[in-house]
User: Fold 1,6-anhydro-N-acetylmuramyl-L-alanine amidase AmpD from Gilliamella bombicola.
Amino acid sequence: MSLKIVNGWLQDIKHVVSPFYNERPANKPISLLVIHNISLPPNQYGGPYVEQLFTGQLDPNKHPYFASIYQLEVSSHLFIRRDGEITQFVPFDKRAWHAGKSVFAGQENCNDFSIGIEIEGCDSDSFTEQQYQQLANVTLLLQQTYRIENIAGHSDIAPDRKTDPGPCFDWHYYRSLLAQKSQEQKLLNQIEQIIAELQKIDLWQITPPKPDAFLSQEPFALDTMQAHEWLQWIFIPRIQAMIDAKVNLPKFALHPYFEEALKEQEQDVNRLLNLIKQLDELS
Assistant:
């Protein structure tokens, strides 16, 4: 799923508007992401109760625990269920009430400058792969949109009160996913620029080479394709497929070959060569 934000709302997900939010202070840009866990009733998953809590509709008679919390005015920006479903309650540019009394890097009232994400879970259960994947996807988008500099758990900003996201939250795996997805996105963005440049200088083809051309055993299909053809019809699709398959990408060095192969090209290929060199550096 390709995610995007419009007017503070994540698109193509479930939206449930919470009344528990207000404006952010004008002098507090968003710079922190806070990760929480929540389950209602405690250690039980899948019901409607988190949504009801964040919208002030929790029935205290549904469970004994609810009698102690149903009057709370709390919310988060996002809630990620065990199956990866995302619900948004408050637009990102508004101040959700998720952190409470808190401090980060000497700044109090973290709600002022943070985005809060609740993950369905508890301190004693592992989180699901779907939740890690969605959290990493959302994190990258938020970092790109709001220039978030730091990520913390609720326990980091309110250590005397809170323990979440808890000892079962795998920070190492989450951060490795972020690094992997960030690298993949950089590669895809670079490939998009290369495609655009090939189209601009009329080296992008509509019709593929003959099927036999793809059977070459030579490096870069030297005996059956021109350099730009190999780039378009073999290399780019292969890298895109590997990214989609979540396999480790190889190191590659295309620039030396293309610098030699394109030196007699009539078109101005200087920008294309520079983009290919940048792609090498990303691998």
User: Anything to note?
Assistant: The chain has a mean pLDDT of 96. The first strand starts at residue 5 and ends at 6. The chain has seven helices and twelve strands.
